[in-house]
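Here is my example:
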Amino acid sequence: MDWNFGGSTLSIDLSRTTGQLFTQRGTTTYRSRYLAPLLFLAADGVTIAAAALLAIALRFVIPETGDVSQQILYLWPFGVVLWLVMLSFGGGYADKNLGAGTREYNMVLWSSLATASAIAIASFLAKYDLSRGFFLLFFLVGTPMLLLERFVVRRVIHQMRVRQVISRRVLLAGDVGHVKDVLKVITREAWLGYHVVGALVPSGADASDLPLKVLGTPHDAVEIVHDRQIDQVIFTEGAFPDSVGLRKLAWDLESERAQMAVVPALTDISAQRVQVRPVAGLPLVIVESPTAQRAGRWAKRTFDIVGASAALILAAPVMLFTMLAIKFEDRGPALFKQVRVGKGGQEFECLKFRSMVVDAEARLAELNNQGPNEMMFKMARDPRITGVGNTIRRFSIDELPQLWNVLRGDMSLVGPRPALPKEVAQYAPHVNRRLEVRPGLSGLWQVSGRSNLSWEDTVRLDLYYVDNWSMAQDLAILCRTVGAVMFSNGAY
């Protein structure tokens, strides 16, 4: 029996026993390959069905030309099935599209539009008396519900991968330096679900400082994949001296049903900027220009003004209460102004609610040697923080006045972390690229750990944002910011 999930086919011979099915490549492997698509399929089905029932219940909100109750009873199951089919054709259940990036959400939007178009066109051609109320509510309610459901299921999948409920057994192959670089990324991004079993390095290479067990050379890949039930072999530079050896190994791995991945000499580049184009048999990787200039155009600025205005109105009661609490605690000023460096190196006064004692700046020198790194001073238990300050920093309430900086054009809702002048003075030349866009009230640095990040990781995330900006990424970061703030991830 075969099921197709957007290009990935799950084939099960029902004559096999359950034990044979799970032990062919291991229980964890089976779960990793098929459980995630099945979870998304089940969740999508329930969500779309719930949207259909909700649209049926609320259809009276939109006036109808006649009684169409009977037609809806026949239509809604068809609409649910058609929507799932469109999601499948759009790659909604292909493993490569699940759990990372914005492609999954774009696919949901386009599949939803395709489903709505197909139903509308079919109803028109068949002269079917379609309920306008049901049709509009089905998609106006169902699409946001589907996006939210995908977000929640993605978080569940990530946690399952972190806990290795579902994971892939992986080999890293290549020269020692590149293997260490890839291992660092895989270790840092545990939600990917990669369980690195060992490394394959060229014969004679010095792997004494490699924190992995060396299982052999790249030429031994097929044998090791078979013996250790490996799901994927990731090849870095230096795995083979020429393309012939790599191509032959790809043929051999095909019989083992193990995936082969090749890490190009490109890092921190968004998938949206990369295209693989075959030219005379060569798979050329075409990389589009960085998007830093687009991040400063009118669309993002308009989004900032509208978003910051709405946020200020909604946050006004919280801001007023915070100002009164700070004033009541020590009678000092509620606002704290600090010079920061913005776009193009221009300095501006960054506003915050004061979360420290009044003479915090004067007391900084005695604490400076206790910070975790030289570029950004952060202490998990800074003695200068007040009682109210501890609470407002935990939930990032202290940063709400920066919405005024956004309206003034000093900052953006999303962007790199606003830096101090003394930090900018110590920048390496390549780090100055952070200053090509407006600093952000939130950013990749905030949703990825905030104060728990090292300086190197902060720079890496900021430069990634600058080079790979998109409006979809801004929206995704703002959504993730809500979770980071609610759960106080890395806040101190």
Notes: Residues 2-162 form one domain. DSSP finds 16 helices and 13 strands in the chain. The two ends are 54 Å apart (CA to CA).
